[in-house]
Design a protein that fits this description.
The protein is an alpha+beta fold. It has 16 helices and 34 strands. The longest helix is centred in the C-terminal third of the chain and has 31 residues.
Length: 684
């Protein structure tokens, strides 16, 4: 082949962009050190070699210039030109101390340079101490980034270090900067008389809060009074965070960066400093507070006669826990019991109306850990959603829906105004069809002619399976067919709630989208709607941070489960198969709701198992034995790895609570062989 022909062929497959194309994305660094920038428009990842990171770290949002592109394979290579935003500024690792300098060595499996720590920034840390360090400066010409120690982690406080590591890895700062703290401290403690005059005064109307027993940030309150016409005026009062946190301030920038508070088993990592979240904005009893309110006039059937939205001032008379209110509902005794009964009756009517309109009645189980003074779990309590929780839920849903409907009606130049709607798409057809086939085996029929009919079918199935052995598996698989809720300016409605318009208005202390909603709503009520051209970007950021917080919270719960079950290694528990994969099956213990895995390798002495996808089961090739999602089984705890947050179980062949025979039938010819391969273990 001639040189000219070879050159011509090369030009067909390779494009040298000469630095012309720059795109934005997220850098992911592999353990080998090679990086890939995941482009936002999903046009293809860009490979970046370690020498071209330009101070970028794993998870950072960057701009990358494409320097080489293979048109045939669509492979792109590039150099990072700018770090747009750091995913993480705080890290956990160890100090290496010499006479004249110190370095921070991060604990991470992703390649990252050590931080140079000036000796006056050690905060008392000594050689080999485990610390939290913050990246302060990293210029393009600096070989080593400069950092400072934020805090020293005590060797005996392993739990504290583990929780902080989870937060740091998820990109949530562990502390607030001096600028943010200074702004928070400058905010006034007392509401001025001039500010009160601008607001509707609810201070003389009975108002109270209902929250978890250990809550400190009370961001919602209810007021109630009887009107002369016999109807009830019920106010949903929300902490007016936007009154204190103004746009383009250090406080606002920090809240936007975090976008959400993170709730771990032993702590809250707040979106806003405690000065705001637990003091100024928290609707504590016997204090005047600024609020943004949705006030409804309703009759006893839950029919809404009038709605008013606006800024208010309240004075909470009482602070209830959910348990307090539940006791009043069940026993009929307690402070303001008559008002609690009215609110509960109306909430039940609202709930009934919601499900009649197609809301899906999925139930979920949550666990709460009982911790000792070091944060070690000494017990697990399963949290139930009772009438007290549903009472608050219904009025919050009503307020959120009403605010979204109000903003949706507002247009500027015949165009909708940018607004962070809370959206939830219809079920994915690919996920839905296998589930429908599986549900049919239990006698449940699905009408898929319209989204409304699908929701109807779901609710019928959920009602029919209540209390039956298959309830758990069908609920879990049903939830997996659902799309994930998110924030978006395009209002497609909320399928799961059956609301045409919906937003988050009721938790601005812990969610940044609610702060955005308050600002837009205030501008709409004033007749001067805000046109925020960056609202799409803000919806993406807050949705991403919400997902990161949820993953962090799951990891925190998993860590506590593993820490709790370490004490039970070698013991047997009854469980339910909660997931099935080609490499084994997952089991959630009935007593503690702790999930671990039974590996397919540990089952190899019993039989050779293979995955039956449509059946959500593992099936034995010789014995015919099956392990299906939803089956009750016995397991032995054989491993609890805190570093990997992993529980390892082994299947134990003994009767379940529902079955006095073997869990599944074994063919007669195989029973003797199976017994030899898997002798019955001793109890305990």
């Amino acid at each position: 082949m001639s040189k000219s022909t070879s050159s011509k062929k090369k030009n067909k497959t390779t494009k040298n962009t000469h630095g012309q194309t720059t795109v934005k994305g997220t850098l992911e660094i592999t353990r080998s050190g090679i990086g890939y920038v995941l482009i936002e428009d999903k046009s293809g990842d860009v490979l970046v070699r370690p020498g071209d990171f330009n101070t970028a770290l794993n998870g950072d949002t960057v701009r990358v210039r494409i320097v080489r592109e293979n048109l045939a394979s669509k492979r792109k290579e590039g150099r990072i030109t700018e770090v747009v935003a750091r995913k993480q500024n705080e890290f956990i690792g160890h100090i290496q101390l010499s006479t004249n300098f110190a370095f921070f060595v991060p604990n991470t499996d992703k390649p990252m340079p050590d931080l140079f720590i000036p000796l006056d920034k050690l905060k008392g840390a000594k050689h080999k101490d485990k610390v939290v360090a913050r990246l302060v400066e990293w210029g393009k010409d600096d070989k080593k980034p400069i950092g400072e120690v934020v805090s020293v982690l005590l060797a005996e406080d392993e739990n504290d270090a583990a929780m902080k590591e989870l937060l740091a890895e998820a990109g949530f700062p562990l502390s607030f900067s001096d600028a943010v703290m200074e702004e928070a401290l400058r905010l006034p403690d007392v509401i001025s008389s001039a500010e009160i005059k601008k607001r509707k005064d609810f201070r003389d109307i009975l108002t109270f809060t209902i929250d978890p027993v250990d809550a400190r940030d009370f961001d919602d309150a209810l007021s109630i009074r009887v009107l002369k016409n016999g109807n009830y005026e019920i106010g949903v009062h929300i902490a007016d965070v936007s009154h204190y946190v103004e746009p383009d301030t250090a406080l606002d920038e920090e809240a936007y960066k975090r976008s959400t508070s993170v709730y771990l088993p032993d702590r809250v990592n707040p979106m806003l400093p405690e000065r705001i979240s637990n003091e100024l904005c928290s609707l504590r009893p016997n204090e005047d507070k600024c609020t943004f309110s949705a006030v409804f006039q309703l009759n006893t059937e839950g029919e809404i006669k009038e709605v008013w939205l606006g800024k208010t001032v309240i004075h909470s008379k009482y602070r209830y826990s959910y348990e307090d209110v539940q006791e009043i509902i069940e026993k009929g005794e307690g402070a303001y019991k008559a008002e609690i009964f009215v609110l509960n009756d109306i909430a039940k009517q609202l709930r009934k109306q919601r499900f009649a309109h197609g809301a899906i009645n999925f139930s979920s189980t949550e666990v709460r850990f009982t911790l000792d003074d070091k944060g070690k779990p000494i017990g697990i309590v399963v949290k139930e959603s009772k009438e007290a929780h549903q009472l608050i839920e219904e009025f919050m849903l009503l307020a959120n829906k009403t605010v979204a409907e109000t903003v949706f009606k507002t247009e500027v130049n015949h165009k909708p105004i940018p607004f962070p709607y809370r959206i939830h798409d219809q079920p994915d057809e690919k996920k839905l069809q296998p589930f429908i086939e599986y549900a049919r085996r239990y006698g449940h029929q699905f009408n898929t002619s319209t989204p409304e009919k699908i929701a109807e079918s779901f609710n019928q199935m959920l009602a029919d399976v209540k209390g039956k052995p298959e309830q758990h598996v069908l609920e879990q698989l049903g939830i997996r067919t659902m799309a994930k809720a998110a924030y978006a300016t395009k209002d497609i409605g909320h399928y799961g709630l059956a609301f045409e318009h919906y937003c988050h208005f009721t938790s601005p202390i812990r969610r940044y989208p609610d702060v955005l909603v308050h600002r837009v709503l205030e501008s709409v009520l004033a007749g001067k709607p805000i046109i925020d051209k960056k609202m799409d970007e803000k919806c993406k950021q807050t949705s991403e941070r919400e997902r990161a917080a949820m993953e962090c919270e799951r990891a925190g719960n998993k860590y506590k489960q593993v820490e709790f079950m370490k004490s039970y290694v070698g013991q047997d528990f009854e469980g339910v198969i909660s997931g099935v994969a080609s490499f084994g099956f997952f089991v959630e213990t009935v007593e503690h709701k702790c999930e671990g895995m039974v590996s397919i390798i540990s089952l190899s002495e019993v039989d050779e198992f293979f995955l039956v996808e449509g059946d959500y089961s593992l099936a034995g090739k010789r014995s015919g034995r099956k392990f299906k999602m939803g089956d009750k089984v016995w397991i032995k705890v054989i491993g609890a790895n805190l570093d990997k947050r992993q529980l390892d179980y082994a299947w134990v062949n003994k009767p379940t609570g529902d079955n006095k025979e073997e869990i599944t039938e074994t063919k007669p010819m195989e029973k003797k062989a199976a017994k030899k391969r898997n002798p019955k273990p001793k109890k305990g």
